[in-house]
Amino acid sequence: MRPWRPGRDRRAVRIDPVVPSGGGPERPRVVVVGGGIAGLAAATGLAERGVAVTLLEACEQLGGRVRSWPVGVGSAAGVGSAVGAELAVGSGADDGYGGDKRTMSRGFHAFFRQYYNLRALLRRTDPALRRLVPVDDYPLTLAGGPTDSFARVPRTPPWSILGFVAQSPTFRISDLAKVDVRAALALLQVDFPRTYSELDGVSAAQVLDRLRFPAQARHLALEVFARSFFADPAEFSGGELLAMFHTYFLGGGEGLLFDVPDDDYDTALWAPLGRYLAGLGVETRCGVRVLNVESTADGVRVLHDQGEEAADAVVLALDTSALQRVVADSALGDAAWRDRIARLRTAPPFAVGRRWLDRRLPDVPAFLGTSGYGPLDNVSRLDAFEWGATQWAEQHGGAVVEVHGYALAELSGAVTSEVSSGVRTRLWAEAERVQPELSGAPVLAEEWLVEADCPLVDTSPWTDRPTVATPDPRVVLAGDLVRCDLPVALMERAATTGWQAANQLLTGWGRRGHTLWSPPTRGLLARAES
After folding, report:
1. Model confidence pLDDT, tens digit, residues 444-460
2. pTM here?
3. From CA 277, how far away is CA 380, in angstroms rounded?
4. Are 243 and 250 in contact (CB under 8 A)?
5. According to DSSP H, which parts of 280-412 are helical?
6. Considering only the top CATH level, what class is 13-61+264-345+466-518?
């Protein structure tokens, strides 16, 4: 019988937990700070091994940066955060169409099939992953240029990249002849984590310069990757860009197509997982803001705005600014470690706009990536896959559409609401340019969100990034800002480091950890290991 694998890639790497050593309390207590993907993975990994877990989340819902929340009648309209000034605006109150139950989120997220460890978390409540539905295509359109599709691209390397180039209207033979062959071959010789460090100081833009990639292909098929990290290609890590090329095209066998939840994030994913954790005895408290963490003689003390918690250990699964605040207000680790945390950078702001329209839009694709349309990076039609949005559209004969703009430097620093309003106007104007069907559609309700809390994965030395382990064995980190040896990123890095944080503590207490999986860590032409 074939051994079980988490996907179709036969080269996927299984990572078994370290053999437990030592011992610990009969039933250790851990406080997990942060209820996003990393914190949920850590809480799950610990609770399944008999650890008493208290999960503290500052927001009212689980999911972190992949959460959703209700808007409309009885809800806070225009939920958002301030970036220098108050930027959140909306018209989510009763707009005269019946007080529908509508939801808002921080934007579209693609659940790629290489997200093995995130999918392992979701399988706790959905073993067959039936709540993830496939998006048939991932079209990318260039202003004034062609539209590329990934629907028929082979998924097995090297046929994946060869097949894409052969059928892509973006690539021309005359342009491909200019590509630096030696630099291109290096893409097949990656070996993680070594490749991360080899490209210290090299940006994604510089990687593309070295390749001498065609300008049109660079603008569309490549820069889209960097901006999905909410970063400008000139600041985004070249090592991370190579990891994505390897995972999606050159070394991994899952391809670039993805799935999405069949309803809003809370309904489809996190509320069920919260109930699962409750069944394991996890105490989850939302709306609690952690202030600092103190080391004690026999563990840690976590102080928050509603009291304090004593525990044997703490998992800090926070975004960059929140982690920096807690560390600065605590006496954790040593001076060098605290300085590394303080040097972490946050990516430029991003913006999300969602509209409930009084017009059906059957010809608008579920997801469309864009390049060259000003601040617009993608347009998605939520009623094409989210049950709640579908129900709303059917009831009102309309559609639910979302626009997303990444790395919006103009929203950084102290800005006015006029600046935010200008960006909002431009985003929707560009959406109408790429999708003329949107033009003139009556808007029944609108939500607008600006945030600036994603980590900037920049060109600084890879080894300077914080790891799961810290100088204090009772304190571990988790999240997509945390260094990971594997070629994983975004939601999958959050899930992976969450499991790793649980494993780190479990191993120290003599308990068995959890098996993890990774896309292949070495390129097809990587040097033989010595």
Report:
1. 999 999 999 999 999 99
2. 0.93
3. 32
4. no
5. 320-328, 335-342, 387-396
6. alpha beta
